[in-house]
Amino acid sequence: MEPSPNQNPGLNWQYIASRQGTDIVSIADRYDLWIDGHKSAPASGDYLSTVNPATEEPLAEVAFGGQADIDRAVAAAKHAFPSWSSLAGSERAKYLFRIARLIQERSRELAVLESLDGGKPIKESRDVDLNLVAAHFFYHAGWADKLEYAFAGLDPKPIGVAAQIIPWNFPLLMLAWKVAPALATGNTVVVKPAESTPLTALVFAEITAEAGLPPGVLNVVTGDGTTGAALAAHSDVDKVAFTGSTEVGKEIQRAVAGSKRLTLELGGKGAHIVFDDAAIDQAVEGVVNGIFFNQGHVCCAGSRLLVQESIEDTFMSKLVRRINTLRVGDPLDKNTDVGAINSAAQLAKITELVEATQAEGVEMHQSQCQLPQGGYFFKPTVFRGVAQSSRLAQEEVFGPVLSAMTFRTPSEAVEKANNTPYGLSAGIWTNKGSRILWMADRIRSGVVWANTFNKFDPASPFGGYGESGFGREGGRHGLLAYLESGAR
Amino acid sequence: MGAVPPVDEVGVTERAAALKGRSIKGEAKLDALLLAVRMMDLTTLQGDDTPGKVRQLAAKGARPDPADPDVPSVAALCVYPNMVRHAVQALSGSSVQVASVATYFPSGQVPLEQKVVEVNGVVEAGADEVDMVINRGAFLSGQYQTVCDEIVAIKSAAGRAHLKVILETGELGGLDNVRRASMLAMASGADFIKTSTGKISEAATMPVTLVMLEAIRDYYDSTGTIIGMKPAGGIRTAKEAIAYLVMVNETLGQRWLTPDLFRFGVSSLLNDVLMQIRYMKTGLYQSQDYFSKD
Q: Which pTM does this prediction carry?
């Protein structure tokens, strides 16, 4: 707010950087694959570099897994399967509990590493990602000896070797979403971390060894997209779980069609629907959280805002004012709200779509913040009055960019919210309980949040409709993805 | 009164917790601590208050840390009506204002005429600021006009004295009412809105204060009038005080980071802040015995 000229202007109070130290992490110069309980050099001898996106400096070299490495990893997983799957559920649970506790013990180290490798604010990796990672292992440890009760009379059995392809936006958390239910149900796994964020998965592999997990039950093969494709296509893989882009998801679906079990968790274009009776300041917070959390690198991000026309001016002015208080910068500063864009490629993609939208003449509001010199950063951005037909309203940006539109009636809000090939998330903001239920019945998306957003719990199944994929992760439903069809 | 938007308690609580998570260090912390001292309404509101006790507190407020000339005076000394003239005498020549609670604090359960008489008395005795309580009985029975009329009458009686209107949020039964009462008090002429009397167990909290700050922001947006804020009761540590300042900074902005527009109603916060200031300057925590207990 502008101070009146003749009044005391108040203290110009600048928070100074409060930087999380990195001494807690030791990053090796080079990381090998993790196969059959050991570090293992790639057959080709090739390594890729992983970069700190906040500084563009290389952090480490990471093995580039090829076909021969995948063969070895899958063979190890296949070899480990009979004994692991025949272990009593209560015994498997002990390993998962141990892993969960070790993650808690090393959570600050893992959080720092996640922020260094992926660019997310330490506040989020520390308070959100790592807490949920541990929670997923604890939760699934609890299921391991109760499968007979969860699926009574259906004789639940594990599938075999699961290939699990992890995205770069929540590297360790998405690993936990996949590995915890797979191990709890008695499957063995080969994990393929994302090319730009492999480090926490490799530390995780060491944690499983510390927990005494038998060799071969968990294997990690790093590399790029070709590594993931080769892993998914391997003939000894019985089940593929993929989280990532819709484009790659479709390729995998074609490659494994009919031969393997598959779950896909893909993109989204989630809508916030704000009614004129909403708690407006809290709705603004929810919308900010929905799109700027993790720089918008969230598949269930609320990247579209549908605001009722009668409160558009008020809402937008509050929203624009709020984005100027977001602190954008060094991911390791404990006061950073929005960190670094994950990679140069992603930054280029966001920039292209934003420029195209500007060229359409759409009203743009960007935070006035100063971006750091160097590193991949993008200012929190809101476009107002975006047409439903605009590319920005249709395509997933996967960055800190919100498209705002208006609606007049609840029916129109439903129609616009559903007018996308995706169907992963939605947020309804209203003070009226009956309207929440009416809307939730009609909105086609895997999760509908009411007067909140981005609430995650291992007990709650997560997944999408349409081009957002199929299958659920979390909860009792999530176990089904790792059990033979008798239980489905 | 026009429609007041509802408040979502879960959302407010989350936002307050997020603001509390800011990490304020070094120079920024020292700046905040010194500002917090300048914003304090040092308060004694006890049945056993005496002129001697008030003089003790006045000396402390005027010069909180004689060993450190950088430490400023507090904003005001807040006392009962009987103590106003003693406070005025003890503080003459200092920058510290004298605030008096009034309107039959804390309950306010007397007819308006008596409240007006009381306010006239404290202003005559020299109070610079008047902290009144709203009529919660009228508010909770839906008689908003009565609440408004009383504030208008007290504002008139207070004359040039600054008027702080205590909502006693702990008796209002939820944040929707906190917001409604805030708007009502501002529209009726409050210079400041204040959370609590400190006389019931539920005093200032960050979520309650956030709702009031948001109401102040809305009122400014729609009228251009700048209203001040005073959380009172329950703020005892320097760390909490800094969290409140973060909340003001990120909700209303720099313009409100001044004792003209933000006060802490406190009785025991000052020594903890002084101890932190000493620590920031020397790197050592001093024993509590080095700080006067007043």
A: 0.95
Q: What is the three-class DSSP state of A474?
A: coil
Check which CATH number belongs to the domain holding A99 and give it.
3.40.605.10
Handedness of CA A327, A328, A330, A334 (dihedral sign): positive
As a whole number of angstroms, the distance between CA A104 and CA A474 comes to 20
pLDDT digits (tens, 9 = 90+) for A198-216: 999 999 999 999 999 999 9
CA-wise closest residue to B267 among B197, B169, B163: B197
Q: What amino acid occupies position B215?
A: A
Task: Please state the separation of Cα B189 from the chain's center in Å.
Answer: 17
pLDDT tens digits for range A23-55: 999 999 999 999 999 999 999 999 999 999 999
A residues 278-307 lying closer than 8 A (beta carbon) to B: 278-283, 285-286
Domain range for A402: 271-450
Q: Are residues A260 and A72 in contact, defined by beta-carbon separation less than 8 angstroms? A: no
Give me B143's structure tokens.
């008689």
Q: Are A402 and A291 in contact (CB under 8 A)?
A: yes
CATH 3.20.20.70 holds for B9-290:
yes
Chosen for mutation from B19, B23, B179 (greatest number of chain A CBs closer than 10 Å) is B23
The ipTM, to two decimals, is 0.95
Strand partners, A66: none
Is the pLDDT confidence value at A365 over 70?
A: yes
Distance from the A123 Cα atom to the nearest Cα atom in chain B, whole angstroms: 9
CATH number at residue A419: 3.40.309.10
